[in-house]
């Protein structure tokens, strides 16, 4: 049977009318990870925003300085937390003004300064981190101990595949930031 031009046109039109494949965001892992990160960050921020007036970038600065043994640059904080440098800069300015962090001279390069917690900042960090660990436990309560280990291992594999630093010791050893 010979095809007419109208048959071909009808089939082409039918093909155009078929639903196009689309990205289902709720199954797309990057979307899911981003959404989870935003939600968890927001849930944790209640601990330091309502009680201490800190926003998320300010907490990221305090948290980064709190887990380190020595001072570090704002650039390190920006890269470590994956937060834009201008956002970290504004947080640093506010925290300096509040007396929670201070600048110290970089011994290796006197043109550069590094940041560290003040006594007041260290006390705030020491008060907050147990509360945040408790909140983390509440968030992860839906997982068994084995599932938590698996989640941690799987996240580690993804981080490794993206060549992300996974520990503070590794960051210090590589002077990665």
Automatic annotation (TrEMBL):
The Swiss-Prot or TrEMBL record annotates one GO molecular function as: DNA binding
Q: Which UniProt keywords apply?
A: DNA-binding, Transcription, Transcription regulation
- Residues annotated as coiled-coil are none
Pfam families from the UniProt entry: MarR_2
- Keyword Transcription belongs to the record: yes
Q: InterPro entries from the xrefs?
A: HTH_MarR-typ, MarR/SlyA-like, Tscrpt_reg_MarR-type_CS, WH-like_DNA-bd_sf, WH_DNA-bd_sf
Where's the HTH marR-type domain?
30-160
Family matches, as Gene3D superfamilies: Winged helix-like DNA-binding domain superfamily/Winged helix DNA-binding domain
Q: Which GO terms describe its biological process?
A: response to stress
Q: Which PANTHER family match?
A: MARR-FAMILY TRANSCRIPTIONAL REGULATOR (PTHR33164:SF57), TRANSCRIPTIONAL REGULATOR, MARR FAMILY (PTHR33164)
The protein in question is named DNA-binding transcriptional regulator, MarR family
